[in-house]
Amino acid sequence: MVGGVDTEPLSGSVHDTFAVRRLGPCRVPSPLDLSVIAGDFIPDYTDDLARVLVPVDYNAGAPPVIAGFERAGARQHLFFDPAQTRAAIVTCGGLCPGLNNVLRSMVLQLHHKYRVREVLGFRYGFEGLNPATGVPPITLDPSAVRDVHRHGGSMLGLSRGQQDIGMMVDTLQRHAVDILFCIGGDGTLRGAHAIAEECLRRGLPLGVLGVPKTVDNDVSWVDKTFGFDTAVDVARQAIDGAHSEARGARNGVGIVKLMGREAGFIAAAATLASEDVNFCLIPEVPFELDGPHGLLACLERRLAERGHAVIVVAEGCASRLADAGTQRDASGNLRYAHGASDVGPFLRDAITAHLHARKVGATVKYIDPSYMIRSGAANASDAIFCNELARHAVHAGLAGRTDAVVGRWHRRFTHVPLALITGEKKRVDPDGAQWLSVIETTGQPRLTNAVA
Questions:
Q1: 396 and 344 inside one domain
Q2: 329, CA 20 to 30 Å: which among 42, 160, 209, 440?
Q3: Checking DSSP bridges between strand 86-91 and strand 77-78, what pairing results, if any?
Q4: What is the DSSP letter of 287?
Q5: Do 311 and 335 belong together in one domain?
Q6: Predicted local confidence at residue 11, as pLDDT
Q7: Domain membership flag for residue 451
Q8: Which CATH number covers residue 47?
Q9: Residue 229 designated active-site
Q10: Residue 425 CB burial class (10 angstroms; 0-12, 13-18, ≥19)
């Protein structure tokens, strides 16, 4: 297991599993005028044979596994002639800090560095590739994206839901698109993979590159997705507010619900950043409300000892506490912000009722900063990361890579096959170092009655 995911190949050999598809041989000299000589104080092109090891750890008693992702970076030779190339960009899914940063950096790299023929922006996600919506693509040039990085959201708009793959490829052909950049999360990347497969079936030399976007940070085979650092920053501010509210009242309880449908990365990281959280609840770690070792009893003891408490809960904990229901959004994700499926109000009411029944006078305050987190502008760390992801995606697209994602692994930028990334999701490892840091920081017990 590496980063919470299995390192065994999905099919074929280890090397085949991590190989990225190419449209053909690269014969066009790059216009970037970089160097092929080490140590000459000019940035170098990336060698096609450069790899980033997949497992970085190994046991001394066993031979290390030698498998690697293709290293991302500018290539000396390209598949596409930039002067004859038309690129297109689409942003899909929900809002996420940094969308405009990625989009802007892509446009500037394509125009100023590669001088491509044209860049199109399809509006409102994959809906923009459906001519029935009546929303034509817009031309993206440096003037169009001049200040967009200063704002949250996406200048192209977004949408969720599926579109007919054949129809989308027809649209790309009709607009003579050579490279499609898809910025989005799990559903977007599955759609990008399907588009790439259809292009392959038709024999089209059309590159499809993904940039993984999700504040949940649950995309496999990348160590971080853009927007996550900003999400943790804003989440910590909400936790600070909950802590102030809790300390300001006798037996004050502050509850903060954070995003994380199936993975608790934001909740865990924000808890570590805050250092004022007493209970952190995530989908990956079982816990109980009732019983002598459940959350309610532990909270009651905490209030008796310290007079206040802060609880952080990931939205996906609804599957353990509340009736998660079966409502799904257009992308097929369970809705965790509606009625009984909303774990925040459920937890608030359960705590209030328990303390009232135990005749413990308390003030319970609930904060949900989700939409503030999603809609804000990227912080400094994310802005840098978005710029790097965007430039590496452009390098990959011009060099003929397709059906791939540009990600980061062990702090090195990589090319990852879309088929590999869409096959599973990343999770917080309950046996790993991050969760150990969380429980050591909070001091929380196991919160389960099955105590050995």
A1: no
A2: 209
A3: unpaired
A4: -
A5: yes
A6: 37
A7: no
A8: 3.40.50.450
A9: no
A10: middle
pTM here? Answer: 0.88
132-142 mean pLDDT? 94
388, 280: one domain: no
Q: Encoding tokens for residue 402?
A: 């397709």
Average pLDDT of span 290-307: 94
Which residue among the candidates 216, 229, 276, 368 is catalytic per the annotation? 216
Contact status, residue 199 vs residue 206, Cβ threshold 8 Å: yes
Residues 315 and 410 in one domain: no
User: Going along 92-140, which residue ranges are E strands?
Assistant: 118-122, 138-139
**pLDDT for 60:** 86
Residue with token string 């200063």: 150
Domain residues for the domain of 363 are 228-375+431-442
> Is residue 4 included in any domain, yes or no?
no
Same domain for 437 and 410: no
Domain assignment present for 139 = yes
Q: Which two tokens stand for residue 259?
A: 């995003």
CATH number at residue 339: 3.40.50.460
**Token pair for 122:** 């399809």
Is 292 found in the same domain as 160?
no
pLDDT at 332: 47
Q: Does residue 326 carry a pLDDT above 70? A: no
**Taking residues 230-247, what's their average pLDDT?**
96
Both tokens assigned to 268: 């865990």
Q: Compute the average pLDDT of residues 46-72.
A: 89
Q: Are 258 and 331 members of one domain?
A: yes
Is residue 134 pLDDT above 60, yes or no?
yes
